[in-house]
Write a structure and sequence with these properties.
With 314 residues, the chain is of the alpha/beta class. Helices cover 37% and strands 11% of the residues. The protein starts with a helix and ends with a helix.
Length: 314
């Protein structure tokens, strides 16, 4: 969610650090080993996140830092870095954007309905139309289409009447609809008459690696682009033949992985924050900082840190 908060600092750091490209971005295959060696954070969340991102087969993101300077959006002319979250397009030259950004092919379309309280700059839903423009559309509620129960469209929402994706008769699926909102805001959208007739499907739980989790909610409350990624993978495992490419949807998380490393770097290097143990604990282990690494490495402190992280909200 959102590059805006870190764009200005990222641009400044990039200008003054010739090693920025290799020290801060996720590579195509794994996280940068130098960064890991500098902050050997062993908190469960950090380890899980590292393993997850290492398992993805992503387009290289390290080169993005070379082109992260702000420039006008070709649609609205606003100053943006890499992408315009309002217009949902790259701000780079089209030829360069085509070379740097993957174009993700999806087996069926995805519509995302964004709650008006979700800021564009912080919404991961905007990643989908940027990375899969031929298949993904983002609508700002209440400006949404009218959906009908045509047998080819489903709403992903974990209600009591939802059918699991592996059991749903959706082999002829043409479109899947997601809601981009907090849990408390979702009912306003899913109860709207234009979506109310859609059959609902749910999926297996997955652990979020989002750095801004919802307060007082479990780890299984995913960022929207994480939910889209996991849904397509679970659908494919249930309805596609064996031998498929297990990494075919990985690049849905291309910008998510880029932002993860960018934000981790921001908090690791910001001495105003990373020296504050309360800040580390309030972040619930999602931000890798030297303070978190030191706590995790201390045999006496680790149990207390783990207990606090599971008992307190972010």
């Amino acid at each position: 969610k959102g590059l805006r908060r870190h764009e200005r600092q990222e641009t400044s750091t990039r200008t003054h650090s010739p090693t920025h490209a290799t020290a801060t971005m996720a590579s195509a295959d794994a996280f940068d080993s130098q960064a890991e060696a500098a902050t050997p954070d062993t908190t469960p969340r950090a380890v899980a996140a590292r393993k997850f991102f290492d398992s993805l087969r992503l387009w290289p993101t390290d080169v993005l830092s070379e082109h992260a300077s702000r420039r006008p959006c070709p649609v609205c002319n606003a100053s943006r870095s890499l992408v315009c979250y309002d217009c949902r397009v790259p701000v780079l030259d089209p030829t360069l954007a085509e070379r740097l950004f993957p174009a993700v092919e999806l087996p069926f379309a995805v519509d995302l309905i964004k709650h008006p309280n979700e800021l564009n700059a912080k919404s991961t839903a905007v990643h989908a139309p940027i990375l899969s423009p031929a298949h993904a559309k983002l609508y700002d509620f209440p400006d949404v289409p009218t959906y009908t129960n045509d047998g080819h469209t489903v709403l992903v929402f974990p209600s009591k009447d939802a059918t699991h994706v592996r059991d749903a008769p959706i082999k002829n699926l043409r479109k899947v609809v997601f809601v981009d909102s907090t849990w408390s805001q979702a009912s306003r959208i899913v109860s709207d008459p234009r979506l109310a007739d859609l059959p609902r499907v749910c999926m297996d739980e997955a652990i979020t690696h989002f750095w801004r989790p919802q307060k007082n909610k479990p780890d299984t409350f995913l960022a929207t682009i994480e939910a889209v990624y996991h849904f397509y993978n679970q659908w494919a495992r249930a309805h596609q033949p064996e031998g498929r490419d297990e990494h075919e949807f990985d690049n849905l998380l291309f910008l998510f992985a880029y932002q993860y490393r960018l934000i981790q770097k921001h908090y690791r290097e910001d001495t105003r924050k990373h020296g504050n143990p309360a800040f580390v604990l309030n972040r619930n282990g999602f931000i890798e900082t030297p303070a978190a690494a030191n706590e995790a490495a201390d045999a006496d402190a680790a149990p207390a840190l783990a207990a606090t992280a599971t008992s307190k909200g972010p």
